[in-house]
Design brief:
Blueprint lengths: L1 E4 L2 E4 L6 H8 L5 E4 L2 E2 L11 E5 L7 H8 L7 H5 L3 E5 L3 H13 L3 E5 L23 H12 L4 E5 L8 H5 L4 E4 L4 H14 L5 E4 L12 E6 L2 E5 L13 H19 L10
Parallel strand pairs: 1-5, 6-7, 6-9, 7-8, 9-10, 10-12
Antiparallel strand pairs: 1-2, 3-4, 3-5, 11-12
Helix pairs in contact: 4-5, 4-8
Length: 272
């Protein structure tokens, strides 16, 4: 009988239990995850099961750390996401949180593009820390990602995205996340992606300002291959700020739609 155990496939005798495997593979481990769910009572393993055994008190070996991080994703999901590549256009409130969510999900390659550095006003909503102030955002975010899921391959470009430059930046990406700040930058992305990266879906955001009802933030495919997150009306103006709760909701929508696209759970609309 063959199962997937952390670093690779192994043969085990029929009738082997989760606890028995734990005792032979990692004695003293106090967490056993089988097919994405923690084992609360001993179970007999079946052919093809995915098993991870870890201890609360020790860091697993390098080859086991990635599988441990993604153990709760469910059977087969981590391996599919691990083969995917996602471009992140902008690494601020949306992009930093989208990138972190995707790293935690086990995305294999992330391409980060942003020209800015981290400043103190970013910390109210962006996934950075005081120690990152003054660093290029792409550099700081890369360190955060690799501190969560070291197997993720991170490529960084500390530059502004412009029409005509998308193919160079996002070659081989399966999906691109538009996480830019200004209305002008956001406006050119759908047409630019369709022209320069034909067939690559774009997940974009509009309308997440303030602290209104988070349930108004939804995800729609507004045209073939273009998915829009937001309430499509709120904007950052004088007296209307931007805060972590709604930004995180939108980033969660954006990352979730990207995962759905990669796993084939979104039926694409036909181009018109």
């Amino acid at each position: 009988m063959r199962i997937k155990l952390s670093c690779g496939d192994v043969e085990i005798p029929a009738g082997t239990t989760a606890a028995g495997l734990r005792d032979s593979h990692r004695p003293g481990a106090d967490v056993i995850v089988v097919n994405g769910a923690p084992v609360t009572h001993d179970v007999i393993l079946r052919d093809g099961d995915e098993v991870v055994c870890v201890s609360h008190e020790e860091k697993p070996p390098a080859c086991e750390l990635g599988p441990a991080v993604t153990a709760r994703c469910g059977p087969g999901v981590a391996s599919r996401l691990g083969k995917a590549s996602v471009g992140i256009a902008g690494c601020g409130g949306l992009g930093s949180n989208v990138a972190v969510a995707l790293a935690r999900s086990g995305i294999g390659r992330l391409v980060l593009v942003d020209p800015d550095t981290v400043d103190p006003t970013n910390l109210n909503r962006q996934h950075f820390f005081v120690a990152h102030i003054g660093l290029p955002k792409v550099e700081a975010l890369a360190s955060v990602i690799l501190g969560i899921h070291p197997p993720t391959r991170v490529e960084t470009f500390a530059e502004r995205i412009r029409p005509g430059g998308l193919e160079r930046l996002f070659a081989y990406c399966d999906v691109v996340a538009e996480c830019l700040d200004t209305a002008g930058d956001k406006a050119f992305m759908p047409a630019a992606v369709r022209a320069e990266l034909p067939g690559v879906p774009l997940v974009t955001v509009s309308g997440i300002a303030g602290h209104g009802d988070a349930n108004e933030i939804v995800t729609r495919e507004v045209m073939a291959g273009v998915h829009l997150v937001g309430d499509q009306r709120s904007d950052v103006t004088s007296g209307v700020g931007i805060m972590a709760p709604r930004v995180l909701v939108a980033a969660g929508h954006q990352a979730n739609r990207i995962v759905q696209i990669i796993l084939g759970e979104v039926v694409p609309r036909e181009k018109t």
